[in-house]
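Troubleshooting log. The previous run stalled partway through. Resubmitting the same two chains, unchanged.
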Amino acid sequence: ETGVTQSPTHLIKTRGQQVTLRCSSQSGHNTVSWYQQALGQGPQFIFQYYREEENGRGNFPPRFSGLQFPNYSSELNVNALELDDSALYLCASSTGDRSSTDTQYFGPGTRLTVL
Amino acid sequence: RKEVEQDPGPFNVPEGATVAFNCTYSNSASQSFFWYRQDCRKEPKLLMSVYSSGNEDGRFTAQLNRASQYISLLIRDSKLSDSATYLCVVNKSGTYKYIFGTGTRLKVLA
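Second attempt completed without errors. Output:
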C-alpha cells in the first residue's frame, strides 16, 4: 500500500451543490497533486500543492479549488457541481520542489456521482 | 494532437503470450517516463519507471526511444493477473505535473 488515504470513498451529489474531498499524503511527502479521471480516460491534472501553496494548475475552472495543511494533507473543493464533474478523483503524494516532482503515489480515489 | 497517445485496446491475449504496448509523446522536453497499472475502479499503481537505457523487472521490460518519442512496455509469459489497464505517464523536465495517456486495456485469457 502507498500510505495515501482519501475520504470519502464514494459520494453522490446533485447539480449545483458543493463538495469537499480529502487526502492524507504519505509520511515524509510534501507535495500533493489532484487528478480527475472520467470513465474510459486517463487521469487529468487539476492542480498541485507544495508546502501549503498552489504550485501549478491544469485546465480546470476556478470552481475547483484546494488547500494543503501544515501536515501536508489536502482538500479539493468543487463548487456549483455539474453533471460532467462525475468522475474518480485521485490524489497523489510525492516529494519534490516547486519545479519538479519525484514519483507520485496515488490514493484509492473518491468516486463522485453528480445527479 | 494529444500530448501522450496510447492505443486503447483491448488487447486480448492467451496466457503465456508476449504482448507489447507503445506510447508516443509529443513534447521533446519530456524528461521522466513511467508505466502505471490500473485495475478496474482502483487507483493507478506504479509498475515501473522507464530509463534511457531500458529496464527490466521480471517479466516486464520498458524501453525509451527519445529520437522517435515513444516508450514501450513488453510483458512476457502473460498471467491472468496481468489483466488491467496500463497507463503511460510523461513528466516534462522542470515541471511538476504528470501527463497520462488514456491507457491500454489488456485482457489475458485462460
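Takeaways: Chain A has a mean pLDDT of 92. Chain A has no helices and 13 strands.
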